[in-house]
Write a structure and sequence with these properties.
Layout: H1 4-27, H2 34-47, E1 51-60, E2 63-65, E3 82-91, E4 94-103, H3 109-125, H4 132-145, E5 149-150, E6 156-159, E7 169-170, E8 185-189, E9 192-194, E10 200-211, H5 221-234, E11 239-240, H6 241-261, E12 265-273, E13 279-281, E14 284-288, E15 293-295
Antiparallel strand pairs: 1-3, 2-12, 3-4, 5-9, 6-7, 6-8, 8-14, 9-13, 10-11, 10-12, 14-15
Helix pairs in contact: 1-2, 3-4, 5-6
Length: about 300
């Protein structure tokens, strides 16, 4: 059972993410550098009393997820594009995770509405005892009603302290499963809609890493010390290559590459729709209580 202190920290993290996504609506503009946007949003998280739970993801057009700017990234927001901004913050390890989609063409309006309304319906539906697959059915019906396809291999997820993906998944399609929502669990629900194939594949380096294991590297005291430093900084949460560069410089990036090759650290690749379709995403984090659901990040309030 969640304590009042734990709930308070989840709520504070949610407020920080809500405020950061509100800022994103102002700073995400055509022609602006992705690096500038990510750093502004991450700095905002820290200024509000939190820490990033993962690097800000800025995913353009057919990219659905897992792209954060590189150390010297030169990419900018393209004209007439559709942009997913996914933000996570934690307070003492208690995480909030939410995302919005911003478009620069009216042609994409319905694609955004499909994912947003799917999230709204899922939030109204979820409560203790509901099967996770039935939440996927709610999401899928809304997205298909708008003429689009849900992405079947991207899911929402249960959240625990310092654990972004804590064992249970919330599908975006109808799926038979025995697993149910139970009281005092925390979930991030994130519908993805596309006019493409509805299945994502890996593409380019997403510049996001995560420690896989703390197993020692034989005969390398230096690498072991570096790995311990990464754990102190990020624990089990994803982190950006540019954060490593900022603290450790070029040598840190070289050591990070060695840890990746030794399978101590995992590097994410950007995920794109296999049919090169455009993708929209909306996401909220919520605490499931016995008689109510507390939406900590309140993304839908930004679009009233």
């Amino acid at each position: 059972m969640l304590t009042d202190d734990e709930i308070e920290k989840y709520l504070k993290a949610g407020d920080i993410v809500h405020d950061t996504l509100d800022l994103a609506l102002d700073v995400v503009k055509e022609g602006v550098s992705l690096l500038e946007i990510a750093e502004k949003l991450e700095n905002n998280i820290v200024s509000k009393g939190g820490q990033p739970a993962f690097p800000v993801n800025i995913s353009i057009n057919e990219i659905a997820a897992h792209y954060s700017p590189a150390v010297n990234d030169t990419k900018i927001i393209p004209s007439k594009s559709i942009i997913k901004v996914d933000v996570g913050a934690h307070v003492d390890g208690y995480i909030a995770d939410a995302a919005i989609t911003i478009s620069f063409s009216p042609d994409f309006d319905n694609l955004l509405v499909a994912a947003r309304e799917a999230l709204r319906n899922a939030e109204s539906y979820i409560h203790p005892g509901k099967k996770l697959g039935s939440i996927g059915e709610v999401i899928e019906k809304v997205i298909r009603r708008y003429g689009f396809i849900p992405i079947s291999n991207l899911n929402g997820h249960k959240i625990e302290r310092y654990n972004l993906h804590a064992g249970k998944s919330v599908p975006n399609v109808s799926m038979y499963t025995f697993r149910k929502v139970t009281r005092d669990e925390v979930y991030a629900i994130e519908p993805f809609a596309t006019n493409g194939e509805g299945f994502v594949i890996e593409r380019e380096n997403g510049h996001i890493c995560q420690i896989m294991t703390m197993r020692r590297v034989k005969e390398s005291k230096e690498l072991n010390m570096f790995l311990k430093g990464l754990w102190r900084d990020f624990r089990s949460l994803p982190f950006a290559e540019r954060w490593v560069y900022k603290k450790y410089g070029k040598r840190g990036i070289e050591d990070l590459e060695r840890l990746i090759s030794l399978k101590r650290v995992y590097r994410y690749n950007a995920l794109v729709d296999r049919g090169a379709g455009l993708v929209s995403q909306f996401e909220d984090t919520m605490i499931v209580r016995e008689n109510k659901v507390i939406v900590t990040t309140r993304v839908l309030e930004l679009f009233r």
